């Protein structure tokens, strides 16, 4: 069983930055690709970014490219999402996720989810 716990959300003004963290436990962290998703009110959950087991490969949604950076520290069993130049449309609940597979599996069919952390960007 995998447990994922997100932290770092909050209220920030447009143009500001936040860093989300996701602490994982229950399995060997370095064996799993990790991803960040978000869900805004009235919208479907969407993938934001993902990172491979080693950290060498990453994926970003077009809407966040150049503004968000995903990284991981396998020694700390933690994945991060650095969010810069935040915009009001980034407002959502952000979820950490993982899957029994590679990066492509995480982006399309994650098996485990965190409880989510709220990010609100004011204009």
- Please provide the ordered H/E string of secondary-structure elements: EEEEEEEEEHEE
Q: Which spans of ≥5 residues are poorly predicted at pLDDT below 50?
A: none
Task: Give the amount of beta strand, in percent.
Answer: over 45%
Number of DSSP-assigned strands: 11
DSSP summary: helix tally: 1
Tell me about the biggest sheet?
Answer: 7 strands, mixed
Portion of residues in helices? Answer: under 10%
Mean pLDDT figure: 95
What distance separates the N and C termini? 40 Å
What is the radius of gyration? 13 Å
The general outline is: globular
Q: From the helix content, strand content and strand pairing, which structural class follows? A: mainly beta
Helix-strand layout with pairing:
Blueprint: E1 3-7, E2 10-13, E3 18-25, E4 34-39, E5 46-51, E6 58-60, E7 68-73, E8 78-83, E9 92-98, H1 103-108, E10 112-113, E11 117-122
Parallel strand pairs: 2-11
Antiparallel strand pairs: 1-3, 3-8, 4-5, 4-9, 5-6, 7-8, 9-10, 9-11
Could you explain how this protein is built, in words?
- The chain has 123 residues and is mostly beta strands.
- Helix content is 5%, strand content 48%.
- The chain has 1 helix and 11 strands.
- The strands form 2 sheets. Strands 2, 4, 5, 6, 9, 10 and 11 form a 7-stranded mixed beta sheet that branches. The protein has a 4-stranded antiparallel beta sheet with strand order 1-3-8-7, with no helix packed on it.
- A hairpin with a 4-residue loop joins strand 7 (68-73) and strand 8.
- The longest helix is centred in the last third of the chain and has 6 residues, at 103-108.
- The radius of gyration is 13 Å and the shape is globular.
- It starts with a strand and ends with a strand.
- The mean pLDDT is 95.
């Amino acid at each position: 069983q995998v447990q994922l716990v997100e932290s770092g959300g909050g209220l920030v003004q447009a143009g500001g930055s936040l860093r989300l963290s996701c602490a994982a436990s229950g399995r060997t962290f370095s064996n799993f690709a990790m991803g960040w998703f978000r869900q805004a009110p009235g919208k479907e959950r969407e993938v934001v970014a993902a990172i491979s087991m080693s950290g060498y490969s990453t994926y970003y949604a077009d809407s966040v490219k150049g503004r968000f950076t995903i990284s991981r520290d396998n020694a700390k069993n933690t994945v991060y999402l650095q969010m810069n130049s935040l915009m009001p449309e980034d407002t959502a609940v952000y979820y950490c996720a993982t899957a029994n597979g590679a990066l492509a599996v995480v982006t399309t069919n994650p098996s485990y989810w965190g409880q989510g952390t709220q990010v609100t960007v004011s204009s």
